[in-house]
């Protein structure tokens, strides 16, 4: 994410203000904070909180910054929304992040940014499915988890595809489908030979 301050365009777009207003109205604001600091100061406080690992606090500050924007739609507000979306991703709030990036995709019509937003939205959709599958694994429902992971598993599909492949192999192991699990881990290790956990799983399957 670009850490530089965006140039304020100052333009107002009546047709798009309702979307930004809807986002702002859905955000909690600490009493009095927005009235004492301006949007740029609140944005900087949010960035500082992110650097300190306080993503909940940072998300709150970005919400206040949007509130202080008073319905303005400009590059600065897009920048604040991007930071808010990053906080949501780091907090595992993938559905909320999808909503934030969906609004960005509607508001910010620059072609180069549109490509980025669509890539993020696609990845977030996969993360949401991955999170659901892992919840089934935690509950011991490995067959259901494996079914949900299968369409996501792709060794060339980025972070989501990699994690889905690994966890699907784990599911196969728990379901005592050892030959399939060994094949899956072999393919994974061939692609990611530095993953020590996968190497241990493969060694176990080869010696059992």
List keywords for this structure.
Serine Threonine Protein Phosphatase 5, Tetratricopeptide repeat; 73% helix; 0% strand; mainly alpha; elongated; disordered N terminus; 208 residues; 11 helices
Write a structural description.
This protein has 208 residues and is mostly helical. The protein has helices at 14-25, 33-36, 39-51, 55-68, 75-90, 94-107, 111-138, 142-149, 158-174, 178-191, 196-207. It has two domains: 14-109, Tetratricopeptide repeat domain (Serine Threonine Protein Phosphatase 5, Tetratricopeptide repeat, Alpha Horseshoe), CATH 1.25.40; 129-207, Alpha Horseshoe (Serine Threonine Protein Phosphatase 5, Tetratricopeptide repeat), CATH 1.25.40.10. It contains eleven helices and no strands.
Can you summarize this structure?
The protein is built from eleven helices and no strands. By secondary structure, it is an all-alpha fold. The termini are far apart.
């Amino acid at each position: 994410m670009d850490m530089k301050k965006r140039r304020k365009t100052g333009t107002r777009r009546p047709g798009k203000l309702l979307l930004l207003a809807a986002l702002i109205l859905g955000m909690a604001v600490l009493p009095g904070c927005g009235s004492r600091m301006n949007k740029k100061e609140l944005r900087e406080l949010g960035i500082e909180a992110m650097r300190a690992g306080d993503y909940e606090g940072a998300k709150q500050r970005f919400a206040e910054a949007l509130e202080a924007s008073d319905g303005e739609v400009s590059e600065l507000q897009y920048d604040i929304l991007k930071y808010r979306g990053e906080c949501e991703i780091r907090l595992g709030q993938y559905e909320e992040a999808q909503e934030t990036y969906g609004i960005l995709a509607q508001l910010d019509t620059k072609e180069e940014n549109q490509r980025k937003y669509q890539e993020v939205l696609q990845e977030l959709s996969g993360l949401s499915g991955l999170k659901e599958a892992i919840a089934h694994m935690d509950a011991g429902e490995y067959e259901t988890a494996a079914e949900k992971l299968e369409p996501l598993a792709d060794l060339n599909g980025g972070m989501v595809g990699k994690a889905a492949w690994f966890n699907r192999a784990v599911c196969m192991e728990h379901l005592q489908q050892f030959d399939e699990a060994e094949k899956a881990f072999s393919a994974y290790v061939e692609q990611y030979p530095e993953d020590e956990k996968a190497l241990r799983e493969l060694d176990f399957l080869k010696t059992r």
